[in-house]
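How a chain folds remains the central question behind the approach discussed here. This step matters because it turns folding into a mapping between discrete strings. The sequence in question and its structure tokens are set out directly beneath this paragraph.
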Amino acid sequence: MTETFVFKAVYLIFYATTIFIRYPYLKANRQNKIVASRKTTGEKILLGIATLGMALLPLVYIVTPWLDRFDYAVPLPGRIAGAVLLFFPVLWLFYRSHKDLGRNWSATLEIRDGHHIVSSGVYKHIRHPMYSSLWLGGWVLPLVLTNWVAGWSTLACFGILYFFRIDNEEKMMTSQFGEAYLAYKNRTKRLIPFVL
């Protein structure tokens, strides 16, 4: 069993865990009536780009040799550190974000029946902890999948989604919740508590 095989397996376990975390919220969310939506063609394209970089390219790398020529070397301690970071701060924050949001979570820009501002748990100090987990995962993944295409595609494709979506998402929340959301924005940071 090669080191590359082991870390490809690590990624598959990580990816499967994200699906396991998200699935119950996705299922519950389908039962909530949509009351406001900004799900445009542009939003669908952004989600497609994110899916390409965060799932499809890494999976192509794992199951085919097509991207192998883009491999690079990372010392074993760096790869182990990457795996540890994926499974602890990244997955923990991803899980807590979903748990704290509960039925307020949506994969797209939508407000659903009963939606409210969540300002407790990991949302007490940052407005977008799920994005924080994805940013961190995007920076750590190249230590686990040591491939210029598959390893870095999450960071690149999620970055495109984030920068084109974040202002629209916050405008949607401000439009829906007005002064309450503006007050929440004023006492929190977007991604890193007390910093950014």
